[in-house]
Amino acid sequence: MNNLASLLERLRLIFHEGTGLLTDPAMLRTFECDGLAHHRVIPAVVVLPTTAEQVEQTISICHDLGVPFVARGNGTGLSAGALPVAEGVVISLSRFRRIIEIDAPNMRAVVEPGVINLDLTKASVGDDLYYAPDPSSQQVCSIGGNVAENSGGAHCLKYGFTTHHITGLEVVTPDGELISLGAGKCVDAPGYDLLGAFIGSEGTLGVATKITTKLLKRPELVKTLIAAFDSTTSAGAAVSAIIASGILPAAVEMMDALAIEAAENAVHCGYPEGANTVLIVELDGPEGEVLAGMERVEAFCRECGAGELRIAADDEERALIWKGRKSAFAAIGTLSPDFIVQDGVIPRTSLPQVLAEIAELSRTSGIRVANVFHAGDGNLHPLVLFDERIAGDLETANAVSGAIIDLCIKYGGSITGEHGVGADKVSYMGKMFTEADLDTMQMVRCAFDVDNLSNPGKIFPTPRLCGEVPGRHHGVHPLVLSGEAELF
Amino acid sequence: MPSPIATIDGATPRATATPSSVDELRTTLQEASHSGKQLLLAGHHTKMDWGRPPESVDVAIELGALPCEIEHWADDLVVRATASVTLEELQRELSTRGQRLCVDTLIPSSTLGGLVATAPSGPLRYGYGAIRDLLIGVGAVRVDGTLTRSGGRVVKNVAGYDLAKLYTGSYGTLAAVTEVFLRLHALPEESQYLTVAVPIDNLGPVVAALTHSTVAPSAIELHGPLGERTLTLSVLIEGLAKGVPIRQAGLERALGLSFATSTSAPDWWSSLPGSTTLKVTHEVASLPQLVQGLYEIADRHQIHTELKDSIGIGVCHLGIDALATLTLESAGQVLGEIRMLATALGGSAIILRAPVALRTAMDPFGSIPALDLMRRVKAQFDPQQLLARGRFVGGI
To answer: Which of A85, A264, B116, B195 could pair covalently with A68 via S-S, beta carbons 3.0-4.6 A apart?
Structure first.
């Protein structure tokens, strides 16, 4: 019996074919990519567990047979982090999605990994609480996926990333053992902070089956300002003035003319007409603090040359401002048939130089670039526009997109602020980190996953053979030689 | 820097190395690991009575002599500092630009390397996070002498594994941290400490009102000796001058209490109680049960206990110096009762610091879930188990 046949035979003991276990090629195809659709691989099998026991059994079987597996939430990732392995299993967690508990007195929730991010906040509203990390895809993305990617969102400037909001995980390790990481509803479990290492490891250290999150009290007051500027430079100066004054906004977002045009086309968000750049600044917290802070934010914007400036009068107006921003990626489709969403980070103060260099890249290549940023923390999301039907356009767009990431590295930033490395950016890891850095990270991988079965091919350009002497690779890597891995 | 370590938990290191550069440190580690020497990394020796006694030490490596460097990118609210810089030196430098690292100076003269290695939990954690949350990048030398980095100088960054978290609180058993990149905050325009006495029978509603208030305090601390049935509650409100009085009034309304105010912290604020100190974690809302349970244990064993709880975080420090004077059997019984209480409230209890006899006779860390996996991590980073062998959880 070959490996696939024995895999299927054992999986059929756990899952019903057609509902919990998919082998039909047409069904498998729907799992061939995540939100980054130009990376595609059809997996051998898809399973849809609804219990931790099923995840544990699936991974144990994979471990026994040496079959790679890829965990997938709702497939909204933008780095091909959930890209399947052709001979492997995709563990789709989208049906494993109960909110187990909202523990208002302890300000915690316990959820299964497939729970949609926004659903947790909706479930907490009655207790006047919310779940803080809010990636733009929060209406569809899963909390399990957020854990894998250490997702951020517009409000992470003040409230931090997923890693700051998870206190405990139940995890199935790549050898099929169900364990607890972290401290449940408490903090500071004695021992190594494996919880911290696991969050953001992009599914390479195992699969989370239960997640304990913090919940925060809803702020007393939220105020959102939108201001028009004649350039990204003057808007950037306003951001610097706000931050330097000691005000920590909940969010600071910037969009340039092309991004504004796209958002207006798509969702009619009513941004200031003719603006070259818009700045969105949101303050939240105690009323006295927010009102006093907003007076200053307004003054800084005016000093830096803001034209039209308004503060959302109610929740509806605020929602419209955010709708324009959060729909920006999809809205680009109204301007261009194809586009690449880039995700890089620079020190915030380098913004003027980096934007000038991006404009130059755009000018010399003839490729349009729309810019959307989390301006408070220097996280850029340039949208590189192209038309696949035009010969050479994709290649040029890829080159521009890559050059933008090179700029992020040159200015001391990062190749990804929130989308993750996935399969998409493995080739950039060697530019940001030394071989020794990557080797050290993979020591953690080796502690969890000796056989390199959990989401292989992600994050690291070259897999490390666990047990080899660190830092010494000669000739062709043995995994490459054996055909088990590919050099990117 | 202080004079080299003479003894560690009663054992005398056979040699001391005092590298004056990262390159020298790399060579030292490389040579020592090549010859299989047992090593102990030390900074300013402020937490030598933390953790289990190391099994043996051939070479104490003094990291306090490494160069002190601070690179402050004030407009980015980020700093790079070498591990030998003390928290006080760093704060002095940052304050010249109106900024700070939101970490409490619980133990004077601690180096940043020592802070990362032991990750003490202080009051400001409520408003700004723990050191693990503010550490955005780290440079470290592995036991084989390899220099390695993770993270970087930007706050938002998900490239690669977050090794900074792994090193934080690892008691120097994985690598020698040589530099840190930290997220900073602006100094607040105004700070007010609001203090009031709270009867322990009234803690439940006070904790609920505080943790669910919209006033957004920076810290909420409860302190006092357990012998009395009243403890001191102190809340730190920081922010814009205009907002602070309004927030104070809001908190008084929510709690139905009237506070005494001061712009300076109570004298117990930035310290750990006692010289034998336990760290007990618990679910936030279970504080009343914890306090009641501890009160009963202290009463039953007639031991003086000083309590300091970070409300809203669920970290409680207990100063129980009497533990060191009891018979080991009685001390073990007290610790066992506290551990049972903490476990029932979802948390754990560890001996944070104590005289060597106590840390030898009983495991400071107790039972550890996922210990096998931790051993595997240790085996990857330090296959010969040379760094502080025996000092950490489960004898790692």
So the answer is: A85
